[in-house]
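Hi Prof. W.,

I finally got the Phasin prediction working! I wasn't sure whether to trim anything, so I left the full sequence exactly as given:
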Amino acid sequence: MESSTSSLAPENLLASQKAGLDVSFGLASRAVEGFEKLIDLNVRTFRTALAEHQEYVTKAFSVRDPKEFFALQNARFQANAESTQAYWQQVADVATGVRGVYLEAAQDQIGKSQRNVQAFVDSIANGAPGSNAVVSAWKQVIDTATQSANSAYEAARAAARQVVEAAQDDAASAANAASTASAATPPAVRAVSTKATSAKK
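And this is what came out:
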């Protein structure tokens, strides 16, 4: 009987609580690191956008010809699409990193819980003679619950992976659409500049 109560000893409970707190603070720390990375990314993106806009405005004031102006606008549009795609890719990378830490911690906690429950059942089995049928039933229930938990965890992980992949695909599609729109604009620019040239004659 002592073996079954030894897992419930105050020292073991305190150690378990301390481990749980360490995991919680570790996860909170990683979440803050992810938030810091996003803030840093936003500051760098804003600085870059400001510098690029200043360069664009300076060039726009020095343009003398409508064709050159529209070409400058098209180049700016293409650069914006590429910058947007790069930004969202970096956001997805930060989110994936934080998500990976949480999934790893969840897997560790599930493993620890499974081991603790198994150890508890084993200690009951060793301390209670003649209760093999009850212990076997408990083990079967625990095994079934463990398999269900593992299946749910894998399904959640697969769903999270699909969400990240869908976000990455959407960012790539948006960039491709912007590239296609930018590539389709030069004929219109040529038509406008041809009309402007004809009007001057």
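Confidence is low (pLDDT under 50) at residues 1-5, 187-194. Does that look reasonable to you?

Thanks,
D.
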